[in-house]
Amino acid sequence: IVSFTNIQAYLMKPKWQSYLFEPVVKALCFLVGFLFAQAVLFEATVPLFVPFYIACAIYEKRYKQFILAGGLLGALTLGVGQLLLILLQIFVYSLLRTKVVKQSPILALLLTTTIVQMVWQCLFYSFEVPPIVFLYFLFEVVASVIVYVFFKQALVMPNKLLVDWRYERMISVVILFSLLLISLNEIQFFNIAPATLLLQFVICCAAFYGPLPFATFVATIVSVTLSMSQLAFSSMIALYAVTGALVSNGKRLGKYGIAVLSIIPSIIFVFYDATLPLDVVHFTSITLGALLFLHVATFVKITKTEIQDSSSIVQQSIDDFKRFNIFLHE
Description:
- α4 runs antiparallel to α5 (80-99), α7 packs across α8 and α9 (194-209) packs parallel to α11.
- The longest helix is centred in the middle third of the chain and has 25 residues, at 131-155.
- The two termini are 41 Å apart.
- Helices cover 73% and strands 2% of the residues.
- Residues 1-12 and 306-314 have low confidence and may be disordered.
- By secondary structure, the chain is mainly alpha-helical.
C-alpha cells in the first residue's frame, strides 16, 4: 500500500492552508470534466464523461457541480448535439436511479446509454442505422460500463484520497490517465505538447514510486490507448515501452538517474526510425516532463506498507486451525 505522507500532513495544517487547497481541487475537477467530455475514442464515440460524472456524484458529491460544468463546456466544443446528448443521458440516468433501478448504478448506466443512444441514432438516421454506427453504439455502451468500474476503483474511499493506494487502484488511475490524455493529444503550446510532457512525467514517477515493472506498464498502456484513439498503431508504442523499461531498471540510480535515462531512448530512436515525430516539440516536452518529475520527487514522499500474499494468509489460517485442533484433542 502506498501513502502520500507529506501531502497528507500538509492538509492537516491550519485551516487557511486548506482553504487555499480547496479552490485548486475545484479547478482541477472542472478541467478534468472538460477533458473527459472532449475525449473521442476511435474517432467516433465519447463514452467517458457520463461515467465519470456518475461515479463522482456517488463517491465525491462535493465537486460534482464543477465536474458537470466542465463537462458541459467540453461537450459544447464538440457541438450542440453532443451537449444535448450528455444532458439527456444524465436526465435519463437520474430518472432510472430514482424510479426503476435504485440499487445498481452500473445497471442504470447500462440502460441509460443503451436507451439514449438507440433513440438518438434511430431518429438521426430515420430508423436506418448503418452497421458501422450500430457497432460504435455497442462499443460506447460497453466502454461506458467498463470505464465506470475504473472510476469506481479510483474514487473509492474519497476521504482516503492520499492513502491506501493499492496497486489495483494505481492501475485504474493509469488507465483513466491514458484516456484523459486523448483530449490533449492534438494540443500544442509553442514547442510544448502537454500530452507528451505529462506522459514523460508519469513514466518517471511510476519508476520512482512504483514497483519495478510499473513504469513499463504505464508507458505501454498510455501509448497504446493514444494510438487506438486515432485508429493508428504507432511506433511510438515501442519508444515509450523502452523508456519505461529503462527507467524502471535504473531506479537504483535515484531520481536524477531516472530523469536522464528517460530521455536517452528518444535520442536513440531518432537514428533508428526517421519517420517518428521526434522533433523539437517532443524533446522540449520530455525534458520539461523530466524536470517536473525532479521537482515533485524532491517534495512528495511516500510510505509503503507490504501486504501479505493471499496464499500465505490462507496457509497461516490453516496452520492456526491445525494447532487449535491439536489443542482440543490433548
